[in-house]
Amino acid sequence: MPSPQAPTSPLEFIRSSTFCTMAHVVHRLTLELAPHLEPYGLTPTTVAVLGQLAAQPEQTPAELARTCDMSPQRMSGIVQRLEADSLISRQGTRGRGRQTTLRLTKTAESRLVAIWPHLVDAGSPDSLQVSPAEAEHLRDLLLCALTPQSPPTSDPVVLVDEQGTRLGTAEKSLVHDSDTPLHLAFSTYLRAPDGRVLITRRALTKRTWPGVWTNSACGHLRPGETPAQAAERRVTEELGTAPLDLQTVLPDFAYRAVDAGGVVENELCPVLVGGIDPAGIDPDPSEVAEYDWVGWDDLRDCAARTPRLLSPWAVEQIVQLGPDPWGRS
Predict the structure, then answer these.
(1) In sequence order, which residues have a C-beta less than 8 Å from that of residue 190 and are 6 or more positions away?
(2) From 107's CA, which of 14, 65, 256, 301 has a CA 20 to 30 Å away?
(3) Binding residues for Mg(2+), per the UniProt record (predicted)?
(4) Is 171 among the annotated ligand-binding positions?
């Protein structure tokens, strides 16, 4: 059998592309559904979110974002709108590091029931203009395409010399031992509009310093990243919302510390300060056990009087940051 030839023009690619075909189907279904959903104040996207929450109740916003394949920022906006429309409610106390979960309200349940016939019709063979066998085959193909693939196992850190020159990379899981080489990292201190500083307690499952209170968020740089780019990425992953107005205040901070288990951290770790929206925080439980808010003076006092209550890097950083790190130029 001859192999298929590659498209020879953009128009030919568009006509033959599986991606374009699927995009067209999605667009068509959206147009068909929208008039039926609008009277109930819903859209295809909000129906998908409510449907996932109906299938798996009691999810946190971060879990729901992952389930729906959305960024935490986008899901945060959708959740706020659904709360305002009394379609979902939160369970648990917010703002003290406790996990809050989401559930459908009775109003949402009744609206999903009301629109159910339209959802069934939109996905029927007649609507798609295919035979029942073809519709079942299409469903199987789509489910296969939507099945999450195993993420890449590579998680490199960037090795550097004492001057910060990048030397190459090494696997994070392999490089941290009793003789960890110097590598790039970052630390952040983020405050709320009222001036209080976010501190986090490392998850109990962390390999090093489990359960220890520390700064707002920290992490490693990936190849090609700047400290600010790494902070934007990692803060959003760990805390469910992006940092605001980041500025680097200790560009040359470095430290070496040994965990109780003998694992060494050895990092060139620029320190950044900025802000964060308390309402958007939804921490990843595999990274953050809980969080709290403290005054900067109280945190400095803790670092000076009871340093063992904090991570070793936080203690050194807090001392060097001084009385007003957000006011540094």
Answers:
(1) 197, 198, 216, 217, 235, 243, 244, 273, 274, 275, 276
(2) 65
(3) 238
(4) no
Higher pLDDT pick, 175 / 19: 175
Provide the pLDDT for residue 184.
Answer: 97
Question: Where residue 237 sits, what CATH number does that domain have?
Answer: 3.90.79.10
Q: Which of 77, 111, 145 is the last residue of a domain?
A: 145
Q: What is the pTM of this model?
A: 0.60
Q: Which of 14-28, 99-113, 205-219, 298-312 has the lowest mean pLDDT?
A: 14-28
- The mean pLDDT of the chain is 85
Decide the pairing of beta strands 254-258 and 183-191. unpaired
Asked if 138 and 282 sit in the same domain, the reply is no
Q: H or E segment at 75?
A: helix 72-84
* AA identity, residue 136: E
Question: Is position 267 annotated as part of the catalytic site?
Answer: yes
**Does the annotation list 36 as a binding residue?**
no
Catalytic pick from 63, 68, 232, 267?
267
**Is 265 annotated among the ligand-binding residues?**
yes
Q: What angle, rounded to 10 degrees, do the helices at 106-122 and 18-37 form?
A: 130
How far is it, in rounded angstroms, from Cα 86 to Cα 113?
Answer: 16
Is 4 contained in some domain? no
Residue 50 pLDDT greater than 80, yes or no? yes
118 is in an annotated binding site: no
Q: Which amino acid is at 123?
A: G
Overall number of domains in the chain: 2
Give the helix, strand, coil percentages of the chain, each rounded to 5.
Answer: 45, 20, 35
Is residue 151 situated within a structural domain? Answer: no
Residue whose structure tokens are 């205040």: 249
162 marked as part of a ligand binding site: no
